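Tokens in:
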């Protein structure tokens, strides 16, 4: 189904209204299904519409998300610190917010890059740490050299030990290995290209069937019950809104926050 610009803009307005009303009731601060996905959508939508009210709402949500974090917040990428921290780096690197990430992510770094905990973590969490490390090094962090020479070698070693299934491709792990061996963080100058192959499966940032189902429901005004939709970034309303916005302006850089390693249900 192909929609014209006016129809897409109308759907985006409906999505924003639903998320404004229901977005504050999510029970997770995480990236994939929690509040961080809404933060990304509203910063993106504010830029697209040039409406400062959406930007203010995005800042409020970001503050709320950070206030919900605590020492027991998991490290994992989908719902935990690694994904949230990566999203903050994305917002800074693509000019949505202006903050010093070395300051705002200082406690994230302490927890996520803990070498003592690394041997006990499962493979998915190790890969999530790796993706967060890539985002940190792609920015202007003063800790890039430390991450490159201290964190990555240990991380790559642990991932190699735990990756026992040769049929599973952990693209993040392969890329980390290349950077560690070459000691060249310059490979990360544009994170939107690092994980471009993930667009093969998620051309809209969505599974194609899910994208088409949402498109049909909204085109038919079949959204009377907002509860029928997920709100998050992965296959939810926030991601659907991001995908539709990319249809209009061509900026799909946000898909880099959905690496292949973590796109299995």
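Residues out:
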């Amino acid at each position: 189904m192909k929609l014209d610009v006016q129809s897409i803009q109308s759907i985006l307005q409906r999505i924003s209204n639903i998320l404004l009303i229901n977005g504050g009731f999510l029970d997770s601060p995480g990236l994939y299904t929690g509040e961080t996905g809404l933060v990304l959508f509203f910063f993106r939508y504010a830029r697209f519409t040039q409406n400062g009210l959406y930007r203010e709402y995005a800042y409020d949500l970001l503050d709320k998300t950070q206030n919900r974090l605590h020492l027991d917040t998991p490290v994992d990428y989908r719902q935990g610190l690694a994904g949230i921290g990566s999203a903050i780096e994305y917002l800074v690197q693509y000019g949505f917010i202006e903050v010093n990430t070395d300051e705002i992510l200082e406690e994230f770094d302490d927890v996520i890059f803990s070498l003592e905990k690394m041997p006990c973590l499962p493979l998915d969490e190790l890969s999530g740490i790796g993706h967060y490390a890539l985002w940190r090094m792609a920015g202007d962090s003063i800790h890039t050299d430390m991450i490159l020479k201290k964190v990555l070698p240990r991380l790559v070693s642990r991932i190699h030990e735990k990756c026992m299934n040769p049929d599973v491709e952990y693209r993040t792990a392969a890329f980390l290995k290349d950077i560690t061996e070459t000691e060249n963080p310059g490979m990360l100058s544009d994170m939107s290209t690092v994980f471009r192959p993930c667009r093969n499966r998620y051309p809209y940032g969505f599974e194609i069937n899910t994208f088409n189902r949402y498109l049909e429901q909204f085109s038919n005004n079949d959204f009377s019950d907002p509860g029928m939709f997920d709100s998050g970034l992965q296959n939810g309303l926030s991601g659907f809104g991001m995908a539709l916005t990319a249809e209009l302006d061509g900026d799909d850089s946000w898909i880099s926050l959905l690496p292949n390693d973590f796109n299995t249900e």
